[in-house]
Amino acid sequence: MPALERDWAKALEGSRHSYSLTPLHDIVRTWQLRVASAPAVDAYTDSGRDESGFVALEDVLGTRQ
Hints:
Elements: H1 2-18, H2 22-46, H3 57-61
Helix pairs in contact: 1-2
Pfam family, one: DUF6247
Protein name: DUF6247 family protein
InterPro entries: DUF6247
């Protein structure tokens, strides 16, 4: 959870300066997608096809609109 707390604190600070809730909504959306994709990641790594490299988060979640 440190990553979520770090992201939330940064977004909260940005919201305080801009008077916009958009940064907070973006963090919630991003983390919802991360949590939702966790079972698929677990299934992939459990399948024995684990690759030692990594995939960029943008490739998994897509780009922001």
